[in-house]
Structure formats: C-alpha cells, structure tokens
Amino acid sequence: MSKMADVNTNLGTTLKVTVTGGGPVGLSFALLLESLMGSKVAIKVYDGRWTQEGARIVWKGEEQENARRQQVVTIQSRQYLRLPKEVRDRVFQEGCYSEMWPKGPDSIRGYGPRNVRIAHFEDKLLELANEKKESIQLIPLRFDPEDRRDEIKSQHALVICEGAQSYTRDYFAEKFGSADKSMYSLEGDHVQDVILGLRVKSDLPDPMAVLLTVTQNRFLLNSLRGDGFLNMRLTDEEVEEVFGIDLKSKKFRDCIQSSPCVMEHTEKPGEFKSTTYSTLFLPAMLREGSPLWTRIQGGLKLFQIKEENLSAVTAFRLAMVHRPRFTAQLYPPTQKTPGTFGFLLGDAANAIHFWPGRGLNSGIASAISLARCLKLNWRDKGFREADFTRHEGLMAMLQYRHKSRAWRTMVTTDSNGNPCAIKNKIKQGIVESENGKFNKDSDIDELMSRLSQIRSRLKQRISGLPSDNTLRQHLRELDPQTLRTLVVSGSWDTFSVGGEEVEVDLLFSDPDSVGGEEVDVDLLFSDPDLPVPPERKQAGKVLAGLTARILVGVALAVGLYYLIPTLGGELSDSLHNIIDELLVQVTL
Ligand SMILES: Cc1cc2nc3c(=O)[nH]c(=O)nc-3n(C[C@H](O)[C@H](O)[C@H](O)COP(=O)(O)OP(=O)(O)OC[C@H]3O[C@@H](n4cnc5c(N)ncnc54)[C@H](O)[C@@H]3O)c2cc1C
C-alpha cells in the first residue's frame, strides 16, 4: 500500500499536512517540508489553477480562464538560499534570472537579490513537486473547507496559502480573528492604491532604471534585462479612467478594476484587448483624448520604452490590514482524529503592498519557519499550542517589519509631520502643472540633486551608474507634468525602510548548516542583568587577569623597542629578536 493510500487510516508515525493553494508559497512550503522530513510526512496540495495532463499536474491555460501572472519578482538571498538546493538549481538557471537591485541588509553570504518571473518560479516548483509523489500529492481542485471538513479533521496541519483573498481563512474567521484596517487608514479611510501594470520592454540599462525608480514614487520598473512591468501609481481620479469598453454592447466595464485581467496588445495600433472579457482598454483608444494615456506615455519615456514595446496592461488594487494571529487549533483531538492546527502563510497571512518588493519574500520566510517548526516539534502524535510559540512570534515579526515598510511607500508626511497618501501628492502635482504652477528647470534641478545623492550611496554596490550629463539630458526630454509628478511624489524613504530584517535562523536553526548557521550576534538581545553562574565568573576572572598581563607585556615591549636604537650594535639586535618573539607570543 502506498503511503498516500493509508494517510487517512494510520494515526501516528506520519505527519499529515494539507496545503490549500499551490502558488509560490504553498509549493515552496511543501518542498521545504518534504526536504526536511522525507518519508515522515504526507503532504496534499490543492490548487484550482491546475489540471491533470497524463501522469502530471500542470497549470491550466488561458483557454481554461487561467491568465498566468507575468510579474517579475525580486527574491532576497536571505530567502532563496534557504530553499532546498534542488529548488534553487532549477529556478536559477542561466538566463532565467537577473541581479538588477543592489545588495542590502537582506543580502546574506554575499549573494544579491534576484529577479525572476513569478510564472517561471511557480513552473519550476510544480515541476519538482510532481517528482515527489512519495510524499507530495498534487490535487487539481479548488479546496472547500466545508466539503472537506472530515478530511481536515484527519490531518495534523491545514496550511492555508490561498493568497490575499483566501476563502478558507475567512471560513475559519472565528479561529484566526478579524482583520483590522485601522492602522492602515488615514482619518478613518482605508488607504488603497491602484497600480497600473504595464508590460514593457525597456531600453534603459539596469543601473539607470534603478536610479530613476528610487528617485520618485510615481513609477516603478522591475524587469528581467528590460522585460518586465512598469508599474504606475494612480490617483483616485485616474482610476476612474481605467475602464474597458465592450464594443459589441457598447458598454463600459470596470473589469480591469474589480477582477483584474490582462489586456494584451492586438495587431491594431493602440488596441489592448482582454481575452477574458473581450473588452478594450479605453484610455489607449482615446489616445490624446485621455489625460491618463498621455501620462502613461510620460512614464514610458522616463524608462526609454517605445510605444510598440508596451505589450499588455493590467491593474492591481492594493491595501493592507493587520491580522491578529496566524496559528490556531481548528479542531481538537478526539479518539479518532489527531487534532488539527491551522496556519496562515504567504499573502493569506500578510498581503503587502508590492512597491518595496517583499510580499513573496515574507511568504517564503513564513514557509521556512513553519516547515522547520513542524519538523522540530513532530513527536509522532498531535501538536499542542506551545509548539508554535516561536513560529507565531516570527509571523508577527514579519507582519511588523514588512507592513511598516510597505506603509512608508503608500503614505508620506507634509512639512508639519501630517500624514498624507502619496497618490494625493501626485494629484497635487497634476493640478499644479495644469494650472501652470511649475518651473521645468527647477524641477530638473531637484531631481538631479536627488539622483546624485542616491548615486553616491549606490556607487559601491552598482557599477555602470550614469553620469550627470546623461541624466540631465534624459530629464530634459520629459514633459513638465511628468517632471512635476515625479518631484511631488518624493523619493524612496530609504532611511525609514532600511535596517534590520527578520531572520528565521534566530528562532529555528538552519538544518543544513554544520554546527549552526552563523547569526549576526547584534540581532540577539541578551539580558544585561542576567546572573552569571560561578564557574563563568571564575573563567571571567582568569580571562581578565590574562588580558591585563598581555596588555602590560605589550606596553613594555613597545617601550623597549623604541629605546633600543640608542643602544646600538649586537646588544640592540639580540634585544630586538627577544622582543619580537615576546610580541608574537602575547598577540597570538
Ligand atoms: C505586480 C506585483 C509585483 C510583485 N513584486 C514582488 C517582488 O518583487 N518581491 C516580492 O517578494 N513579492 C512581490 N509581489 C508579491 C508576490 O507576488 C506575492 O506575495 C506572492 O505571489 C504570494 O504568494 P502566495 O503563494 O502566498 O499567494 P498567490 O500567489 O496568490 O497564490 C495563491 C494560490 O492559491 C490558489 N488558491 C486560492 N484559493 C484556493 C482554494 N480555495 N483552493 C485551492 N487553491 C486556491 C490560487 O489558485 C493560487 O495558485 C508582487 C506582486 C505583484 C502583484
């Protein structure tokens, strides 16, 4: 009998885990757990975007209404180096990734952040999961917690990785508690950004694209050697323009807003069509008649993108909430069932504004933490709440770190310290330029001053940064309104968003490191008042005595060294030799 066949009948020995959602986080988690526990775990993964093709599970295609996501995501080395080696080897094949962004506090062991297409990442994870049939069962179905109640009760863990709109998380709302919008609201209004995603091919070299991106908050280019998405933060008024038109019924549809689809460029100039809804992107049809379309063109010019290299348009609606907990006992143990714990991971736990590029990173960190935690606490019978104290702590750390960083990319402060949504600052810039309240030269000067400051900070970490002449020439070609909006949107608040990152190894040691991974000791908080045990006090005294003797020895030796030249001849030489020997011995 295969291990999968007896999953529901054999309590004990095998850890039984169901994962709902086989996106990048669900699959990463399944592969991590499999790599840690091998035959001791039986994992089922459900995803409604999959279908069976022969013996394999594959992604549904567009004909089955599954528009694969095309965005390029940046994964930090703190995360990707902790994925199983076989995952890294498949994902990061030559030509499938690039290193566009500089190293920072989230870069470990000398490795920088890497850009990959999310669809490529998911493809490789699914490919590998297909090869682990002994431990991972892939089920091409949407998971319904009501229909599968008995199945959930038979599992030790239900790991919910269904993304931001998770149905299973909401089904268990009484266990996980209600989300709180208040801390991501301004004057009672939940702050929401709508970002237009423009699939493009940019001709700008990466270093210049990075510089131009971090100098302002209106546009963000993330790409794989120029191919990627140019993201444009919209004002509330611009969102009203983002409509599709159904040419047959002559009706407008807000398809791009309510359930975003990708509108692909057709062969006709200026025509972007949704394959899902058969609608056309209205601003591109109106061209100069649409204020939004002219501003999109400003962004294309900023990143040196020819209009024919804009191949698709989509939109993302982004808002954040605070979640009270990520771990809960869903069903208690009974004589026949082991007791089931539920876990929120990835976007189902913490959906984060993508501007700082940390949603997937936070999701992978949550998967690493839970996989290590389950392995550490598995004792051939059910779990108890205390087993997840550290994992729950880590989830709270991820929420705090990544959402506070992302909030800084949604909201800024005015000169009196009053908070203000960045999209409203952009609106202010548009109004100013429409009223003729701008000075192109001083806007260029302001941007040049930011660019040169950022360039001097980045020059140790990125080579090939552009000169002042190149930058000024480039900015001169932009229209005054684009320049104004760039200026008022402000540059990235790198001081506030930088600093210490969440380190899973602090709570769960790396199983691959021999003798434990070296963790930055500055990150640990030791208790200054902790009583010192007597044997350590004794050792401390011995060490202090030794240090004092060494210091006296070194001082004497150095003093004599400078006196000897006055003695001259052989006496001087032999004293030199003795002192050299003494110095070697005390310093080793
Ligand atoms: C434009 C853009 C750029 C981004 N850039 C970055 C970046 O640079 N760096 C970064 O770290 N992050 C980035 N992100 C965020 C990143 O894409 C997400 O954090 C990541 O996709 C979350 O993965 P997930 O597996 O948790 O959820 P998802 O990717 O949403 O996957 C959820 C999966 O669950 C399945 N599912 C849902 N409900 C069910 C159900 N009931 N039953 C079965 N299956 C179900 C879905 O089909 C899907 O496959 C970006 C996001 C966007 C939109």
Features:
single chain, about 600 residues, alpha+beta, FAD/NAD(P)-binding domain, 4 domains, 6-stranded mixed sheet, 6-stranded antiparallel sheet, 22 helices, 23 strands, globular, disordered N terminus, disordered C terminus, binds flavin-adenine dinucleotide
Question: Could you explain how this protein is built, in words?
Answer:
With 588 residues, the protein is an alpha+beta fold. The chain has 4 domains: 15-185 and 320-408, FAD/NAD(P)-binding domain, CATH 3.50.50; 191-318, no CATH class; 414-497, no CATH class; 534-587. 40% of the residues lie in helices and 17% in strands. Strands 7-2-1-8-21-20 form a 6-stranded mixed sheet. Strand 16 and strand 17 (272-274) form a beta hairpin. Helix 17 packs across helix 19 and helix 21 (534-563) packs antiparallel against helix 22. The longest helix has 30 residues, at 534-563. It is globular, with a radius of gyration of 29 Å. It starts with 14 loop residues before the first strand and ends with a helix. Mean pLDDT is 87; it is low at 1-11, 514-518 and 560-588. Flavin-adenine dinucleotide binds next to helix 1, strand 5, helix 6, helix 13 and helix 14. The site of flavin-adenine dinucleotide has 35 residues, from helix 1, strand 5, helix 6, helix 13 and helix 14.
